[in-house]
Amino acid sequence: MSLEKLVEISNRYGSDLEYVIAGGGNTSWKNDEIMYVKGSGTELGTITGDGFVKVDLSRLDAIWSKSYSEDVDKREEEVLEDLMASRFPSEMKKRPSVETLLHALLPFSYVVHTHPALVNGITCSRQGKDAIDRLFGKKAIWVPVTNPGYILAKEVKDEIEKNTAGGNDFPQMIFLQNHGVFVSGNSEEEVDGIYKEIFDAIRPEVGSFPAGKEIPVEADSILAVESIVKSSLDDSLTVSGFANQDILDMARSEKDFAPLDLAFTPDHIVYYGFKPLYAQSLETLADGIAAYKEENGVNPRLAVIKDLGAFAFNSTATQNEKSRLLFLDDVKVAVYTASFGGYQFMPEDQINFIRNWEVEQYRASLSR
User: What pLDDT, on a 0 to 100 scale, did the predictor assign at position 1?
Assistant: First the structure.
């Protein structure tokens, strides 16, 4: 059964931190009439058949012939209503991935969308588009950073039509700026082969690889940070500390910390906040927290302290672990971008959109 194969593929990619972390990424399988797509808030590594949502492709296709409001918020509400209406009656308690419309555009049985740090070293770099064009030519398309949902799907649709208008084959690699990659194929082997092609093409271009080994953070440092965090923010918060050589190197000064100062992708925002806090020492951490709150209107969820490492603080250990994994991923991306002209954060308007977007707030709530 194809749904069983989709679960197998999803679990395999979702369990590999090189491709997916926490609730990131999504997958689908389709025939001519229906599509099973990952449900919002599920995790690929552990998803079962019940985690996928069965949708009607004809109803999704009809979205492209409809007219929607010019008002951005109203339009998203209208499209979301039509997206939810594409569910079969047995699926009404499930919420399909926000990228369902994009999955439906791709005329292949399987679609596997992931966020590999190696790939995002290009998508989050200043020379990203040039690198993708040079490495993959017309076999791939590059999609500039844009709002998720309908607008993203429309941008992908337009880029595909431009690409195929010149007689090129339908692209099976779609690289999204500050986001990740969509790979599609008609079999598991085809999808795996394309991912291998992507990784094999990018690795030789990398001049310096991320640090692989974590460095233990002293228990006394964690306790000291926890005491400051609890007194400055909330006594119920728990703190975890972690480090590697890249984190320590980038924490030497505010200038060195610049490549980590903002978010590269939506997942980084969801799991540890749009902006980590940098402190020169334990002694300046409390003042740094106060300044962060005043400047940004929210509490920090992760701090990096010179000579000590990174510290995640959330209400649960599960949230801290996800923050740790996503920040380590962020550090990897920052290192990789140096081989492609340097780092490029998400634009400020995109960061604000994700911070306030109802869909991502829903996804974040399920990660707790």
Answer: 61
* Cα 23 to Cα 248: distance, rounded to the nearest angstrom: 27
CB contact set of 71 (below 8 Å; sequence gap of 6+):
none
Residue whose C-alpha is closest to residue 277's, from 297, 255, 265, 293: 293
Which of 42-51, 270-279, 296-305, 356-365 comes out lowest in average pLDDT?
356-365
Do 17 and 103 contact (CB within 8 A), yes or no? no
Spatial contact of 20 and 118, defined as CB atoms under 8 Å apart: no
Distance CA 101, CA 40 (A): 13
Domains and CATH numbers, the chain: 2-205 (3.40.225.10), 219-366 (3.40.225.10)
Confidence band, pLDDT 50/70/90 cuts, at residue 73: confident
**274 touches 203 (CB < 8 A):** no
Three-class SS string for the chain? CHHHHHHHHHHHHHCCCCCCCCCCCEEEEECCCEEEEEECCCCCCCCCHHHEEEEEHHHHHHHHHCCCCCCHHHHHHHHHHHHHHCECHHHCCCCECCCHHHHHHCCCCEEEEECCHHHHHHHCECCHHHHHHHHHHHHEEEECCCCCCHHHHHHHHHHHHHHHHCCCCCCCEEEECCCEEEEEECCHHHHHHHHHHHHHHHHHHCCCCCCCCECCCCHHHHHHHHHHHHHHCCCCCEEEEECEHHHHHHCCCHHHHHHHCCCCCHHHHHHHCCCCEEECCHHHHHHHHHHHHHHHCCCCCEEEECCCEEEEEECCHHHHHHHHHHHHHHHHHHHHHHHHCCECCCCHHHHHHHHHCHHHHHHHHHCC
User: How many residues are given for the chain?
Assistant: 368
pTM for the whole thing? 0.94
Residue among 7, 8, 348, 1 at smallest CA distance from 178 = 348
